[in-house]
Write a structure and sequence with these properties.
The chain has helices at about 10-20, 30-45, 135-139, and strands spanning about 50-55, 60-65, 70-75, 105-110, 120-125. The chain is an alpha+beta fold and about 140 residues long.
């Protein structure tokens, strides 16, 4: 959506935007999709964006807004960052400990935001980011 000037979605707004076009936020449920998507992001030098990932800290898995997508266990993706806002490896659910608490249950992709390359970060869903809708990658 950054290509058309839509850059300020909270995660639920990003999902609604995608649904308004009968689509869903991108699901990166395989290594091939993850790698292909990272190449696109590098090409555009986009700093960050929402995916359709729903981070389940209790079960250590990322589920997807697209119910047909395969959940990804935390240990099955090489794309998690080694750092974040607290300097801890991702996912760290850091904002859940803030006052007020904001559980980091949304999956954002950050492009070198912490000098770490294009990486997955668990993010509190109220942050504003563009999103990516791509039937070729997400379905």
């Amino acid at each position: 959506t950054w290509k058309i000037g839509c850059t300020t979605f909270q995660q639920h707004e990003a999902r609604a935007y995608c649904n308004s076009m009968n689509m869903e936020p991108v699901s990166l449920d395989s290594p091939a999709k993850q790698d292909a998507f990272n190449r696109l992001i590098a090409q555009d030098a986009q700093r960050y964006f929402w995916t359709g990932g729903i981070v389940d800290h209790g079960n250590k898995v990322v589920n997807w807004a697209n119910s047909r997508a395969t959940p990804v266990p935390f240990s099955a993706s090489a794309h998690w960052s080694h750092t974040g806002g607290a300097g801890l490896p991702q996912p760290d659910n850091r904002a859940a400990g803030e006052n007020p608490p904001h559980p980091e249950t949304c999956l954002g992709i950050l492009n070198n935001f912490y000098a770490d390359g294009i990486k997955w970060h668990d993010v509190a869903c109220h942050h504003k980011k563009p999103t990516c809708v791509s039937p070729g990658l997400g379905r």
